[in-house]
Each structure stands twice: as C-alpha cells, then as structure tokens.
Amino acid sequence: MRRNNGIASFGWSFPWRSAVILAASSLILVASDTAPARIPSLVTWTPENIAAASSGDRFRGMLLAKRCDHCHGAEGFSNIASTPNLVGMTKLAIWKQLEDFRTHKRLSRTMEPIAASLSPRDIADVVSYYAALPVFPDPEDDRVFPKGLKDSGHAAIASRLVTFGDGERGIPPCQSCHGPVAYRTGVPSLATQNGEYVLNQLEMFATRTRANDINMPMRTIAALLTEEERHALAEYYGAGLGLQPAGSSGQK
C-alpha cells in the first residue's frame, strides 16, 4: 500500500513540477524579451576618444561639410527651425552625437545613414570645421535664429529654470550642465540653437523617444517639466536669451 501510494504520489507530482518549471522559465523568457537592457550610448570619454574627437583637419572638414549645407546651412546656421544649428558647438558635443547616430543609439532616418557613411577621420574633420565657425551675425547667411518670444511671460519662467531649477521637483538649473551663458565644453551648446529644435528634443526626451543621454539626466528632467515650461525654455534659447548671463532676462 505504501509503495502504491508512493508511486501514485510520484506519478502526480512529476508532471505538476514540470509544468511549474516550464511556466517559470516562460515568464523569465518573456520578461527578458519585453525589457531588454538599454545602453544609452557607446561613447566613453577615454583619453583616446577625446584625442580622436579633437584631432580633425578643419579644411578637409569644410569640404566634407558641403554635403551638410542643405540642412544645417552653409555657415552652420540652418534656415529650417526644426533643424539644429551646428555653429557654436564644441568638438566633443558634435562628435558624440555623430557617434550615437552611427551606432543607432540616437535615432534619425536622415542622420543614421549619413553618420554611418563617415569614417572616423571624416567625423573628426567635420567636427573640427563646425566647432571653429564664428557665431556673429552675417547678412549673407539664411539663418532663422534668433526668433522673438511668442509669449512674453515665458522669459521669466525659463529664466527661473535656467538659474535656479526647481528643488521641490528635483529639477536642477539648466546652467548647471549647459553653462551660465548656455555654453560649456563637451555639452551641447544652447546659446545659438533654434527654439523649435530645442522643443522637439525636450519632448522626445520626455517621452523617451530619444534616449542617448548617459545616466538619463535629460530624460528625467524633461519628463518633470510641464508642457508650458518646455515651450518657455525652447522660446528662451531660440530667442538668443541664453547668450545673456543666467537670470538677467527674467524676474527671479
């Protein structure tokens, strides 16, 4: 009797245990399939990469950049408000974005194939050219920067965020990363950037459509901003107010 009970017990428990193991394995597989690890960027700021980004040939970069003129403008100022101005950007900032496009860490149907077609030397040369362009006004170019504020109240909203951030919501001041006059080495310059482009990027970071920010600072901050605050910051920088010392263009 005991043997029969033991056999019966074994006979019933074996398929049950197998089913549980199979179900658990399936859950693990589903979890790994639906939540793959996301690496924001393959760029690491090693001495070798910094040297590579800083060693370009400006003249050769100018020749290569002729292919970029249609969108980014002959002197780095685009006439398309949703397209970034490359003038005034540092070498490291442009180099990282091109590398992210090349490795598909920053997504763009236009820029991914262009970046993939460039050799490491090409990228360094193009970066060197754009980083050397002057930012002062030129009556011959076709820039749309700067644009006036659509809402005069946005200057005060943006100025507070640029200067102080919002500690209660965990939002640091924009100037802590982008600099007090919207410029800092290695960080994308906002001093001469088109407002519509800034707004598009803030919205993409907020929805995580763009996710190439190392340690997620922009995704986190953009998601905490209200829609009006994102518009205010875009108008502020797009109007050229970032060129002024932080806090001088709005009420505290």
The total count of strands amounts to 0
Helix content: 40-55%
Rg (CA only): 25 Å
Q: What is the name of the CATH topology of the domain at 154-243?
A: Cytochrome Bc1 Complex, Chain D, domain 2
Shape designation:
globular
Question: In whole angstroms, how far apart are the ends?
Answer: 88 Å
Low-confidence stretches: 1-33
SS element count, helices: 12
* CATH homologous superfamily designation of the domain at 154-243: Cytochrome c-like domain
Secondary-structure element order, N to C:
HHHHHHHHHHHH
Main beta sheet, described?
Answer: none
Brief summary:
This protein is mostly helical and 252 residues long. It has twelve helices and no strands.
Word description of this protein:
Helices cover 51% and strands 0% of the residues. With 252 residues, the protein is mostly helical. Among the domains are: 47-131, Cytochrome c-like domain (Cytochrome Bc1 Complex, Chain D, domain 2), CATH 1.10.760.10; 154-243, Cytochrome Bc1 Complex, Chain D, domain 2 (Orthogonal Bundle). It is globular.
